[in-house]
Amino acid sequence: MRSLTATELARNLSQVLDGLQQGGEVVIERNHRRIARLVPVPAGQSALEMMGDLYRTLPDEAAATWQSDARRGGWKAGRLDAKVRDPWLS
């Protein structure tokens, strides 16, 4: 883990961001105290990968019936509304 002062970060922001893209991590210090830690954003996941992660967290008894429950609940093509609704509209 690399440490930089706030001034060094301001002067070298582009290089610091390049290092983060390579998987690095940076601690920012001000007045010899750690004030922040910069880490790269985790890689994005597809909806299928997210559902797989969710499935792995289910207890065995819930996982056994998950697929049939999901299909009964309207996940089959054509059973859900095709129109996307704005959740912020009241």
Write the layout of secondary structure elements.
Elements: E1 2-5, H1 6-11, H2 13-21, E2 26-30, E3 33-38, H3 47-57, H4 60-75
Parallel strand pairs: 1-2
Antiparallel strand pairs: 2-3
Write up what this structure looks like.
The protein has four helices and three strands; from the N terminus they run E-H-H-E-E-H-H. It is of the alpha+beta class. The protein has helices at residues 6-11, 13-21, 47-57, 60-75, and strands at residues 2-5, 26-30, 33-38. The protein has a three-stranded mixed β-sheet with strand order 1-2-3. It has a domain at 1-59: YefM-like fold (3-Layer(aba) Sandwich). The model has no long low-confidence stretch (mean pLDDT 81). The radius of gyration is 22 Å and the shape is elongated. A hairpin with a 2-residue loop joins strand 2 (26-30) and strand 3 (33-38).
Unreliable stretches covering 5 or more consecutive residues: none
Quantity of strands, as a count: 3
Strand content: 15-25%
- Structural class, judged by helices and strands? alpha+beta
Number of helices: 4
What CATH architecture of the domain at 1-59 do you see? 3-Layer(aba) Sandwich
Summarize, please.
This protein is of the alpha+beta class and 90 residues long. The chain has helices at residues 6-11, 13-21, 47-57, 60-75, and strands spanning 2-5, 26-30, 33-38. The mean pLDDT is 81.
